[in-house]
Amino acid sequence: MKNLLKFGAFLFGAAFVLSSCGGGERSATTGWKYNDTKWGGFEKLDYEGQATGPNLVLIEGGTFTMGVTQQDVTYEWNNIPRRVTVSSFYMDETEVSNIDYREYLYWLNRVFGESYPEVYRNALPDTLVWREELAFNEPFVETYFRHPSYDNYPVVGVSWTQATEYCKWRTDRANEMILIERGILNINPEQKDEDNFNTDAYLVGQYQGDVRKNLKDLRTGGERQVRFEDGIVLPDYRLPTEAEWEYAALALQGNQTSEKDERISDRRFYPWDGNTMRYQKRDKSQGMMLANFKRGAGDYMGMAGNLNDDAHITAPVREFLPNDFGLYNMAGNVNEWVLDLYRPLTSVALEDSENHDLNSYRGGEFTQLELDEDGRPVEKDSLGRLRYRYVTDEEAATRDNYKTGKVYNYLDGDKQSNAFYDTGVHTLVSDKTRVYKGGSWADRAYWLTPGTRRYLDQDKASRTIGFRCAMTRTGSPSGNDDVGGNQFSTKRKRKSSRRY
């Protein structure tokens, strides 16, 4: 987690007009004019709210019952039902596809290939995940990631660590695009090594770019670079938390009985209604499979002439019906990495606490920007990124809201919980195990229920695991048409006041 010292991006408006706000709007605190160089140049934006980034869908937050609400057939009891609230956020409507990931690799090779070829090599997916002792899957090793036939199929063989690096890259490319389209930067495909656009580095002045026209500086009357306070750049792309992913998969808003109350008509087992895997409406699609999964032993797609899910392995990322949030393949096709560290008793810890039922998440390792003796960010690294360091336990000890810089084992693996994980002896759970959700083309239907969870080390990959990205929503949870909070119609008496 990055604290408020991060000079990153958390706001993006559909319009960014540094207007005079109605011809000389004044501060309600001091009476000084906004956006007026003569009055010091303090800026107030005519801000229309955060725009939706490429391929994202707004997921309006709310409360739901997280966890396995039907029979736990594995008897692991690692996701006991509990009530939590998830803030509004954005999520990719599809899984990241092969062509999406190849674009990422192309950029890495173009920018770092000559000086730091290991950066490109470390990002390559493990295509050998398709190999199996008693199966002829070698054609997938050769073709699945590289051949154009599979362009729009979900990328697999990507570890959790690689997926998080992809999210960082995507943040910078999307923000660079925004600045280019706003006429602030020119397109510059000649970036090399540390001289590449990085959102954080740009915002603190450690990357200039090929400037076309900067913003007007109302303090000096000249020009200046875009700042965090301008709300122009997007927040970070990232992996969704487990709570966000499960909430988005269920899409319970589709079963809301009325917009006037907070009731839903039915709990869902899958991202759709009912407990069947087949489409139920009486039309030409009746009886078709709603997800890509393994129906039974040796049955990955049915019989010739009547393929039940029309996919022997994965399927294109926009196949099958989207759920009520507009998200594709939130059950089946590929499992998906989420942000959380795996602990089997996380749900118990949350159930016993009143303080962690908003945006529940395990995996916190707090960081802060490295500063020099003058309080400025130190020089960026050889890849063009700002340098961060971990918060120490000594620094956190004086806090009231957290007491340690790394909270992986909080209430599950620490002294307070009386739990201990002897990794490699009695368990595979460690500080590297990450959660994945959703079920895949090779899984039975049980794993397609959003409450189920499994784990894998963050540096390992699988032919059944892919990922999609998420993004934090800033401002009103309902979207840009609502400023947030209930508004009431009231009559106010006018009082005489001094006119400026």
UniProtKB/TrEMBL annotation:
MF annotations from Gene Ontology: formylglycine-generating oxidase activity
Region (Disordered): 470-500
One Pfam family of this chain: FGE-sulfatase
Coiled coil (UniProt feature): none
Compositionally biased intervals (Basic residues): 490-500
Organism: Phaeodactylibacter luteus
Organism phylogeny: Bacteria, Pseudomonadati, Bacteroidota, Saprospiria, Saprospirales
Limits of the Sulfatase-modifying factor enzyme-like domain: 54-368
Name of the protein this chain belongs to: SUMF1/EgtB/PvdOfamily nonheme iron enzyme
InterPro entries the UniProt entry points to: CTDL_fold, Sulfatase_Mod_Factor_Kinase, SUMF_dom, SUMF_sf
